[in-house]
């Protein structure tokens, strides 16, 4: 077909979400490590555990249990202090290593409480299973095995180092077997925790699955359109030569008819119609070749052209789109996922811009970046840390009523597709108002050499 390029191999998404989980499948070189569990989720689960522990302390006091209350409250206070420290940045990304350390802290904290309150004889010993249950759904195998070994160690230590749990005669609940009440509280609290955690997993599985299905459909549509554009461009390129021959033969035939059969005006008109049709085909093929030249088979393109393609559907929608290119020419990989992700970000900016959307590009020695800014109402400050979640509608309706549904899903799709290419996204509000989205890639992941696409079609002489 005359295309001096090869198709890019299909690459699977290196991160497959499952509820709270983002498991590594085939990571791309230099790609950021996946987030195994959201920090916000760990904080929430720890608050639930703290509430349950305080309820257990109250239940133990109610049935007349005798235990070192000050030491128990101090251990619970450590968990409270950790959560308060983490609450300052609840939406930052955490690695599997950090998540394992936090769950290990939770495991040690529960084991310490058990050692102070009777060890394995304590009805609440089953809560030792909570951290390892979370780890089983969220951590990679290495960290899970380490936490499993730690669980075995903590269970053993809580049994060996346990202080006996005794009951005084002045208990508020007069029962022959006060531990029955403890078992009742333990089962109720355990059931609430595990049922709530299972419900949280199921809800996030459904929401994330819907979001990923929408992202997959959008990406497949983009790839089909680009593949069709490549076929059209190749056809236009190849048909240029025979069309030039038709034009040349038509011109010679017109000259010969004028000399040999000047009286046959009907034949002259037919030849003129043939030449006019060839001219029309030339114009059509020229536009087809231009429109489809940068197809999926072409692996690189100027960054400005990639941005122009991403912004093309949003011209004429009320806001002016201005691209401010970097001083140096930047040649990047032309990937359907990147184009669709940028298109979603531009759509978000156009929908809420008052008059103008500005797209700036730039690069330094290590990174290449694209900044998309609008002059609209901006992002709500309270929601900035959560933007990119599939469960959030992030922007208020503009004053003139322009809005669209699924905005949180659209930004989630854009974030997922761009992060797959190795990008980092930062959402913020501009100093003079409006929203700003900064997309940054390591240059060695997005930039390519200057490879030309299809050349112009052969010139067709009249």
From TrEMBL:
InterPro entries: 2C_sensor_his_kinase, HATPase_C_sf, HATPase_dom, His_kinase_dom, HisK_dim/P_dom, HisK_dim/P_sf, RegB, Sig_transdc_His_kin-like_C. Its EC number is 2.7.13.3. The keyword Disulfide bond does not apply. It comes from the Bacteria. Residues 234-445 form the Histidine kinase domain. GO terms for cellular component: plasma membrane. The chain crosses the membrane at residues 44-63, 69-86, 107-132, 144-167, 179-198. It is a multi-pass membrane protein. It catalyses: ATP + protein L-histidine = ADP + protein N-phospho-L-histidine. The keyword Zinc does not apply. Keywords: ATP-binding, Cell membrane, Kinase, Membrane, Nucleotide-binding, Phosphoprotein, Transferase, Transmembrane, Transmembrane helix. Signal peptide: none annotated. PROSITE patterns: HIS_KIN. GO terms for molecular function: ATP binding; phosphorelay sensor kinase activity. SUPFAM superfamilies: ATPase domain of HSP90 chaperone/DNA topoisomerase II/histidine kinase, Homodimeric domain of signal transducing histidine kinase. Its main location: membrane. It is found in: Cell membrane. PANTHER family: SENSOR PROTEIN CREC, SENSOR PROTEIN RSTB. This is histidine kinase.
